[in-house]
Amino acid sequence: MRSLRSTIARLGSALLVSLVLAACSDNTVVSPDAAFNPGVAKFDAVPGTPDWLAPLGGGSANPATFDPTAINRVQVCVWVGGACTGPLTAQFSTTPSAGVGTLTANTAAGRYEASLSLMSTSFLTRRTYRISAMHGTTEVRSILVDIVRGRWALTRPDGTLAPLAAASALPIQFHVAAPLIRVNEVESNGGTPGDWVEITNIGTTTSDVSGFAIKDNDDTHIFTIPAGTTVAPGAFVVLDVGPVFGLGGADMARVYSSTGLLVDSYTWTAHAATTYGRCPDGTGAFKTTTTSTRGTANDCSIPNTIKINEIESSGGTPGDWIELTNTGALSVDISGFVLKDNDDTHVFTIPSGTTIAAGAYLALDVEVNYGLGGADAARLFNKTAELLDSYTWTAHAATTYGRCPNGTGPFITTTAVTRGTANNCTVVNTIVLNEVESSGGTPGDWVEITNIGTTTVDISGFLVKDNDDTHVFTVAPGTMIAAGAYLALDVEVNFGLGSSDAARLFDSGGTLLDSYTWTAHAASTWGRCPNGTGTFGATTSSKGAANGCTPVVPVGPTTETWAGTDNVAVVDAVGTFASNASGLMYERGTGGAADVLWVAQNGPGSIHRLLFNGFIWTRDASNGWAAGKSTRYTDGTGEPDTEDLTFTTGSAAGMYIVSERNNQANSISRPSILRYDVTGTGTSLTATNEWNLTADLPVVAANSGLEGITWIPDNILVAQGFRDVNAGHLYNPAEYPNNGGGLFFVGLEGNGMIYVYALNHTNSTFTRIASVATGFPSGVMALSYDRELTQLWATCDDTCGGLSDIFIIDATPGSPTLGQLKLTHVYARPSTMPNINNEGFTFAPQAACVAGFKPVFWSDDNATGGNSLRSAMIPCVRFP
């Protein structure tokens, strides 16, 4: 007979339902369950813990919920006085070795299996044995069995014994349910009140998670879930781990059961923009959620980033097509998406495996299925037939219909067809000022405009102002100007024009289209010669008709011989640049640093840093400059053809370049100013800002755009009375916040004009301040401002013989160009300089003057004779 003390101890153990945390602890689960005690409810196994099957228990196997990784070992020991005594009697493992039996994780049956034989072990009768299911060294659950008269037996709750098996072999079988608690959402950065982990229950019954633990990637960081915490099926519980530990940018969230078993985890390498969450909740893969949804279902919506971008409905190649673009940051699989016109039976299904990368464009030839009509529609559906985007038109476009800006703007008639690439969103303004009468007109002051385009333009609501924004003349509704026509507007019904005033033309949306400023009444009128395209000068009055261009604009300076020394020398090694060396900028070294000659190369687009070795200029081999640094647009893509460069207070404050186009789409004009940080050690430069001037500049070919750039500080411009033609008064830097401390002057190859801009460095917007013609027939190829001598150099290439212009700010009282750039000298190239394709020009500072002369430099785009850089000397004086 078993002693009363032993029976009471066995009964106390049998009533425990907590899990053990260490092998052979006193918290034993003795499981005489419903199979042997119908009056006691069956113990429902917590997910992750064994549920004993017959003959040890009444649980059931289930392949659908089986967890084959929860248990890897079963051990058997003699149980005396509440502890294991002596060596283990038997061991079973999922990876058996010598002396260790096999524990099988039978996934087909949904159970663990082992067999304990009386014959193969030294079992003693009337002894109690503990069978423990282990995960590593952690006992997850155990059961006590006895051997009575050579048979296995299990103690009932009332202390009596229940035989288990007649045979000598005892089947050890148990089911472990896969954990049903899941990490569902993680906030690792900026949560309220701090970092948190959300869990959910994917099961069908409420789970008690008391004592469960949350850890990050550090096992010493432990958040223990309070007692009494439960998670109902499909519910979400948020655990504010922040007060205990913070989650890092590269970290993980792990959930452990109260027994120390890993239940679920998620690992990330960077903070999410919102949160990381499962989609669908509880069961899906983790993704960056659309919005944070603390304590509620995850926001798994996918914002539609696929848009119709351009449509060719007539005359396409090989036929009608619809272009899509991806406005998002990730590649999107559009397999099975559908394009229709206005007829639901006309269906074009996008082939399987079709993706669109972020920012990319894809033209789809729908005419293989149907044609697009003059009055029709383009509609985009996803694979579940949801309408994603559409556009309807009533007539064929002269070119195509396209969004401007790409992907996000309204549809317009594009300037040119751009199948599979960014839309040509240039809006060509053909309405310009042509003649101004400010004194003695009939019936009073008037402003004449003309249409230099090829089609009639509706100018209803256009505005004319003088230099006062409160003086407004509004063009009447229904007013049209035919191509090549002239229209005089009698502004004196609203305001009079003064002797020192301006005429400014705005479209109906308030965008400045054209302007002209004068400082004295003209003897007759001020007008453009040639009409519509030339510069303003004194003309004979011709209200509403072509200008009387005699006399024409006063003749400027005649060409002079080169002002410096005539001993041009090569100053680089053969092959330093294979070709395409373009802009130049000289930077004086400070604090003992060497002087630097900066070189812009337009193909491949790149910036180069050269140092003087006492004889020639050679590449700087340090900090990634050995082969120059490639230039990229602000999104890290593309290759701007880097034509010229400048800086403000020094290169460390940022390098600015001008570019005509993206070399990777070299048939499309993209006249831009870009800023780069050149202080790093990498070999590639990504722009911090881009000012795309397309909308403000005349339409030019992709290889006839911006070629020159230089910067003039605000203090010089203000001191010399520079005039803001756009605003109609003296330049005031306070009107242009975040402008970088000065104005940027750029030269356009296509028309030989210099344009002056204030660049906003915060939002990358720009404002044109003024413009001036150089007179170069082939365009401006380089600009360089001498900040010490306050004179601007503009140079051209071999197509105009290598001329150099010098401009100053006109300070002559009563001059019609007072406060504007005034051309004072035109110099021929040095006679020892061959007529080569020089696209860059710069000079050393005054500190480099020796005997009254300082070096100047040219860069040859063609690398004539293998050399790209040449130098001569100029006087260290301001030219009169």
List keywords for this structure.
7-stranded mixed sheet, 5 domains, Immunoglobulin-like, 880 residues, mainly beta, 41% strand, 2 helices, 6-stranded mixed sheet
- Can you tell me the overall shape? elongated
Mean pLDDT: 86
Identify low-pLDDT runs.
Answer: 1-47, 551-555
N→C terminal distance: 127 Å
What is the number of helical segments per DSSP (H or I, 4+ residues)? 2
CATH topology (level 3) name of the largest domain: Tachylectin-2, Chain A
CATH class descriptor of the largest domain? Mainly Beta
Using DSSP, what is the number of strands? 69
Structural class, from helix and strand content? mainly beta
Spatial strand sequence of the major β-sheet: 4-3-2-7-8-9-10
Write down the domain tally. Answer: 5
Q: What is the CA-based Rg, rounded?
A: 42 Å
Report helical residue fraction. Answer: under 10%
Percent strand equals 35-45%
Question: Do you know the CATH architecture of the largest domain?
Answer: 5 Propeller
How would you characterize the largest beta sheet? 7 strands, mixed
